[in-house]
Design goal:
With 331 residues, this protein is α/β, with parallel strands linked by helices. It contains twelve helices and eight strands. Bound molecules: zinc ion (2 copies).
């Protein structure tokens, strides 16, 4: 497996820090949401709207399990999918160990499985492994048999159409679970421009795109792939936009700074984009803060508010925050 230049080695994705204006917008939206659910006595008279968070991690940058639980509840999440890391190894596909723990100290299959079992009303788990380990398929299959609802987060330095990755796609096909991939130029999942060949070869496998390179390429004029968080107005028709439009088995994960940025950088575009791909996009948080109460620190809270703000109808909002994930993960 070819090793790449790791000049964009980082850590988990950056949080988009809110401007003061945005902070006021977000908090007032949250207050509106709260007010609607309260009756005259300040008591909730209906259950909160369910939200599925398709992208969280155990031990994320060392966050303790008890904080993960309260973080998700405070953010208003009713169901969370935990995405495990592969096992820690020193190899080209982990950039000699740099990418172990999804480059953010996240823990693996067994921790996610046990946490989800312990909190089975609120949590599901995925299955993952370093793709080019000889027993990768066996390890992933072990957790699919235990009920994993997704394979991922696949965040490794491998070609997206390598034989190792194709074995994983075949496993997903067999178990009828989606595959979630972190796309980051010259770092994770190489060959984004060729990925359509996999969508064609595995038409019954649902793929979920995530991270910087995935979201940067909604813009038709995105030229410089080394810019991971492009800003400003954009033109529809980028590779990501086309994959979502052309392939029924391609979905998008709005998690992390990159997902948020894809909406906030050009909100006029985003309204159209959310409408156009209303059946293809899914809310995820991927955030590392401990409480889930401070919108300035909590990426997930920011993204929920942005989705609510930019969805043209209530029906679209519900699809993005809940219904699409319920259907896709069959949960
Ligand atoms: Zn993640
Ligand atoms: Zn958060």
């Amino acid at each position: 497996m070819q090793t790449r230049n790791n000049n964009n080695v980082g850590k988990p994705e950056k949080l988009s820090l809110l401007s003061r204006r945005k902070f006021i917008e977000v908090t007032s939206l949250l207050l509106v949401g709260t007010a609607l659910k309260l009756n005259g006595a300040g008591i909730s008279d209906d259950a909160p709207e369910p939200i599925i968070d398709i992208h969280q991690h155990t031990d994320y940058l060392g966050r303790k399990s008890k904080y993960l639980l309260t973080h998700q509840r405070n953010m208003g999440i009713t169901t969370t999918i935990l995405l495990p890391a592969g096992r820690p190894v020193i190899s080209a596909s982990t950039h000699q160990g740099i990418s172990n723990g999804l480059e953010a100290k996240c823990t693996g299959n067994n921790v996610c499985y046990r946490f989800a079992k312990k909190h089975s009303n609120e949590f599901y788990f995925g299955a993952n492994e370093v793709p080019d380990l000889p027993d990768a398929v066996k390890e992933i299959e072990k957790y699919l048999k235990r009920g994993a609802v997704v394979i991922g987060e696949l965040k490794f330095g491998v070609e997206c159409d390598s034989s190792e990755m194709q074995k994983i796609y075949q496993l997903a096909q067999h178990y009828n679970v989606p595959v979630l991939m972190h796309w980051q130029f010259e770092m994770y999942n190489y060959g984004f421009e060729r990925f359509h060949t996999m969508l064609e070869k595995y038409p019954t496998v649902n793929f979920i795109g995530h991270a910087q390179t995935w979201w940067a390429n909604i813009d038709k004029d995105n030229k410089d792939q080394t810019v991971l968080y492009p800003n400003g107005k954009l033109t529809p028709g980028g590779l990501t936009d086309r994959l979502l439009g052309d392939y029924p088995n391609m979905f998008g994960d709005l998690a992390a700074g990159s997902g948020f940025n894809s909406l906030s950088r050009d909100e006029d575009h985003a309204r159209e984009f959310l409408t156009r791909h209303q059946d293809k996009l899914l809310f995820g948080s991927d955030c590392t803060d401990a409480s889930g109460l401070n919108p300035v620190l909590c990426q997930g809270t920011q993204t929920i508010a942005e989705i609510r703000k930019l969805s043209s109808t209530k029906q679209i909002e519900r699809k993005l925050l809940y219904e699409n994930a319920k259907k896709l993960f069959r949960i």
